[in-house]
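Following up on my earlier thread - several people asked me to post the actual chain instead of describing it. Fair enough. Here it is, all 267 residues.
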Amino acid sequence: MESKFEKIFSPISLFAINIAIILLAEYTGGGRYFSDTGLIHIITIFFVLLGVARLFHHYYSSDPILERFLRAASLALVTFAFSDVIGLIPTPNSGVAFANTLNFFLISILIIAMGTEFIIKIVERRSYTFTWILSIAIAGILGWVFILFHNQQLADFGPQDKTLYLYAAAMIVTGTFGAFRLYTLKKMIPIASEFLDHLMGSFIIISASIVPSIFYKLAEINLGIPRYQLDYLSHFAYYAGLSIMFLAFTKLSQLSGLYQQQKEAKS
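Reply from S.P.:
Thanks for posting it. Predicted structure:
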């Protein structure tokens, strides 16, 4: 049964909110107001809070499987918000803020993938191999963040800098890996297919949303597209992905009691 919370933020209302944001961003202040004021970044917090609120609206804390996934999802959402807002923090080198936005965005995707691994590990009684790989990847990115803060010249990316291609490749590989693991989980737990379909769609859109921002210099030089428009494009896709993630969380009731079902199936 749908709660009032879910009725207010239905698929139709979320679609309307996203369209309204696009129109306001493109037509307010000559199309630059949201960019100049940083509002385009701050709106991310609204969608993150929406997702976190839905996660804890019906918090299945008695289910050990969902407990770990919900913690990972909550941490990922907070990291998503931080990855966007960090770009507003003044730094002597704007490249550092840009690079760390990408770094924490990538960490967020890895955290969601790790949450999925928790469920796969318990359901299939598999080893922690992939979880350790993801943990090492996150630690490596955090190490890179530390290096950038202490050697900011490394963040002076040119239009043809190979680091940008590495970032894009990392986003694509991580997004593909996460989507594949979600698909694997869907085959393991058919009853949760609707939840996982939504989560896969969200995962793919969010992973792809950052790509226009990565190559903004190339687009400015070769296509004449202003950076703020590429920033808008990334955020519009980002908001859409977070909206679908919220809708995925409304399907979490499908997984309630999953741990007990697994115990009964294996007994």
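The CA atoms of residues 11 and 247 lie 7 Å apart. That should answer part of your original question.
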